[in-house]
Design goal:
This protein is an alpha/beta fold and 147 residues long. Helix content is 37%, strand content 31%. The protein has a single domain, classed as Nucleotidyltransferase, domain 5 (2-Layer Sandwich), CATH 3.30.420.10. It contains four helices and five strands; from the N terminus they run βββαβααβα.
């Protein structure tokens, strides 16, 4: 079975302000359990950074998660997916630990939950920015290219 790691990020310069998202999909199928955290040993299947216009940081985070999950659903719908994000808010909302109080975030949350329900197996965990560096750099590249 294919095992994928999705790392995603979003950011805005100003909140709200010019915003972008980035995501990276790694194939970690061949890595041993302890090696899964080492993305340098994984195969990059897709990486993407996109400018969003003016929006909030949290909206950009959700857009990155949604874009990455959409790519996975379209290309590897039967894969086991591990998601790592540096937004503790989004991680805890997806886990059901926090309520989604923002009316602007709720439709994005629903879209993410709908996609997750279509996939075979999905886990989500928080990571620090250092553990999400490629996705973070894709956000900044998209912002820098547009600005």
């Amino acid at each position: 079975m294919t095992k994928l790691l999705l790392q995603c990020d979003g950011g805005s310069r100003g909140n709200p302000g010019p915003a972008a998202y980035g995501y990276v999909v790694y194939d970690i199928s061949g890595l041993s359990a302890g090696a899964e955290a080492r993305v340098d040993a994984a195969i990059v299947l897709e990486k993407c950074g996109n400018y969003l216009g003016n929006t909030t940081n949290n909206q950009a985070e959700y857009e990155g998660l949604l874009a990455g999950l959409t790519w996975i659903y379209n290309h590897h719908p039967d894969a086991t997916v591990e998601i790592k994000m540096d937004s503790l808010l989004i991680v805890n909302q997806i886990k059901g630990l926090y309520k989604v109080k923002s009316p602007d975030l709720f439709p994005k949350y629903q879209a993410v939950r709908a996609l997750i329900s279509k996939l075979t197996s999905v886990t989500i965990a928080h990571t620090y920015r250092e553990g999400n560096s490629l996705a973070d750099s894709l956000v900044n590249q998209a912002l820098d290219a547009h600005l």
